[in-house]
TrEMBL record:
InterPro entries the record matches: GP_PDE_dom, PLC-like_Pdiesterase_TIM-brl
Entry-linked PROSITE patterns: GP_PDE
Protein name: GDPD2 inositolphosphodiesterase
Membrane topology annotation: Multi-pass membrane protein
UniProt source species: Pheucticus melanocephalus (Black-headed grosbeak)
Stretches that traverse the bilayer: 41-65, 85-113, 125-143, 163-183, 190-212, 493-514
Annotated GO MF terms: glycerophosphodiester phosphodiesterase activity
Cleavable signal peptide: none
Gene3D superfamilies according to UniProt: Phosphatidylinositol (PI) phosphodiesterase
Gene behind this protein: Gdpd2
PANTHER family noted in UniProt: GLYCEROPHOSPHOINOSITOL INOSITOLPHOSPHODIESTERASE GDPD2, GLYCEROPHOSPHORYL DIESTER PHOSPHODIESTERASE
Length: 515
């Protein structure tokens, strides 16, 4: 196969070496008889599919970063091992996508230079392994973390218009090696098949915006107010979660609600703690090693006050932001203790901060007493009851009778024929569509969605009209004065038409030029 003009023998040799894993000189007599067979074409197609498969996984990996802290906590509860597994995920994904990308670029360059696509068996094995690893990752995601499929669907509302432009651009660039292949191959049937597949793919991409919807495609004057921020266990990226320091840091972030979790000690003192065990967020293994595996409610208040609730934050670094803490913040974090609900209510009252909490564990045999004790502390604290947002469903009617001023937040959607109107709902962000959020807003129902950490997700929910979001990253979302992007429908339509027209002209030019 002759070299096309402008493709030097050195370049051809350098391309063949990493792709075929053998040194083949570019002299014609050395390359005589080496041609790209249908078998080689099938491996190139497999390479292209593996690249797309890995690219899709990279997209998923970036999307699930919003919720990855939950995964880290899950692994710790199962294995008692703390590690930021998001780094492992990103590094592994980067290796896989880099490998398949390099091979694909080499193959396209070889095609343009008229060289045979003789993929070495080592690359074939590695590509199969790459496909299996990515398939296993998707399977694991579907089995253990199925709600992330909904997250991916929501993400398309933020990225859809840009993914469309990127896909059109990438497929347009394929016109050059595709034209080279079509003009070089001798099989008319194969030529027609490849051309039809390419044309069908481009037509689908050109028309894709007909199916792309996003709440951020709207006029500027239609944008709803910025959602209020609810601090998830305070400001856990800046201070140990569920501590007074975390509450004060949340206030500094202009958070309007402090979201926390309440348990009741063995001697009847409500305190702030999320996990049923104390091992993740305290030094209980050092202070009470023989009791470390017990439920948090098995400890009395005197025992709980002996525990360090801050040093773990500096040692394990649950978020990258821990590294940037000032020496003063580090000292304050190391001195944190488990706060009682009474202390948290006092701090919230002085900061004019609302407090929303779950009462755990819901399946405890003495749960009704937990409710009564917690209500007693709230009523004695003197905090305005409208600043208390009650989440627990158990014995809710008793709460309404004893503290009628408390605001009730429901962890479910409204249903028909409600006895009392639902005014506040608190749901995972995956559980409400943009249309439902808009409808609830029209009906004056406050919607809080959790846990929202990434600006892209916050932007989509902002455009949808959500009332508030629970977040770990209050210091990031506080600084956002506008959604990441906002496009009037007329502007998006113009971009769509221009991109498609430019792409079509470039493809025609590529086929004419290669001929």
């Amino acid at each position: 196969m002759a070299d096309p003009p402008g493709c030097c023998s050195t370049c051809a040799t350098c391309l063949l070496c990493p792709y075929s894993c053998q040194w083949i000189t570019a002299k014609k007599e050395k390359r005589k008889g080496l041609r790209t067979t249908k078998y080689d074409c099938s491996w190139f197609l497999f390479l292209f599919c593996v690249f797309l498969f890995t690219l899709v996984w990279l997209y998923f990996a970036i999307i699930i970063l919003n919720d990855f802290h939950n995964f880290n906590e899950f692994i710790f509860r199962q294995k008692k091992l703390w590690l930021d597994w998001s780094l492992v995920l990103l590094i592994a994904t980067a290796v896989l996508i880099s490998y398949s990308s390099v091979l694909l670029v080499l193959a396209l360059c070889l095609q343009l230079c008229g060289q045979p696509l003789k993929l070495h068996w080592v690359h074939k094995v590695l590509l199969i392994l790459t496909a299996l690893v990515v398939a296993a990752a998707f399977a694991g995601l579907g089995i253990k973390w199925a709600e992330e499929w909904k997250s991916a669907w929501i993400s398309l509302q933020a990225t859809g218009p840009f993914l469309h432009i990127g896909a059109v651009g990438g497929m347009t660039l394929l016109a050059w090696p595709l034209a080279s292949f079509i003009y070089r191959t001798r099989s008319t049937g194969l030529r027609v098949f490849v051309l039809l597949v390419y044309c069908a793919a481009m037509i689908a991409l050109y028309l894709a915006p007909l199916g792309i919807t996003s709440p951020c495609i709207m006029e500027e004057n239609q944008l709803p107010p910025k959602p209020a921020l609810v601090g998830h266990r305070g400001a856990p990226m800046l201070a140990p979660e569920n501590t007074l320091m975390s509450l004060h840091k949340a206030v500094d972030c202009d958070v309007q609600v402090f979201e926390t979790d309440v348990m009741v000690s063995a001697d009847g003192v409500p305190f702030l703690m999320h996990d049923e065990e104390l091992t993740r967020t305290t030094n209980v293994q050092a202070v009470f090693p023989e009791r470390a595996a017990l439920n948090s409610t098995a400890f009395n208040w005197t025992d709980l006050q002996q525990l360090d609730a801050g040093s773990w934050f500096l040692e394990r670094r649950p978020f990258p932001t821990v590294q940037s803490l000032s020496p003063g913040d580090r000292q304050e974090a190391a001195e944190q203790r488990i706060p009682s609900l009474e202390q948290a209510l006092e701090a919230a009252k002085h900061s004019n901060l609302s407090i929303m909490f779950d009462l755990r564990p819901e399946n405890h045999s003495d749960y009704q007493n937990f409710v009564n004790v917690t209500l007693g502390v709230i009523l004695q604290s003197g905090i305005p009851l409208q600043q208390v947002l009650w989440l627990p469903d158990g014995f809710r009617e008793d709460v309404k009778q004893q503290a009628p001023g408390v605001q009730h937040v429901y962890g479910r959607k409204r249903v028909e024929n409600e006895k009392e109107p639902v005014l506040h709902v608190n749901l995972p962000y995956q559980d409400m569509s943009s249309e439902e959020i808009r409808q609830y807003r029209r009906d004056n129902i406050s919607v809080n969605l959790y846990v929202v950490n990434q600006p892209w997700l916050f932007s989509v929910l902002w455009c949808s009209g959500v009332s508030s979001v629970t977040t770990n990253a209050c210091q990031v979302l506080k600084e956002m004065e506008h959604p990441i992007w906002l496009l009037p429908s007329s502007t998006y339509f113009m971009i769509w038409i221009v991109v498609d027209c430019v792409s079509f002209l470039i493809i025609i030019w590529a086929f004419v030029l290669m001929k």
